[in-house]
Amino acid sequence: MTIQCCMCHKIEVAGEWTQSATTPNGLVSHTYCPVCYSRAQVAIRTEQARARARHELNLVGA
Description:
Shape: rod-shaped
Largest sheet: 4 strands, mixed
Strand content: 15-25%
Structural class: alpha+beta
């Protein structure tokens, strides 16, 4: 089974993430490579902070 990053489409081969010039054949499982995982975590935390701020503003304005 091929492991492919769902963001950058790099392929994991023997624990290393590399850009592949070909499309994977057979079964493909998607996950995040370490770099994209870190970026996704930052984006999630940023959105959570924005949502909390909007919620707090709504409570003050109520």
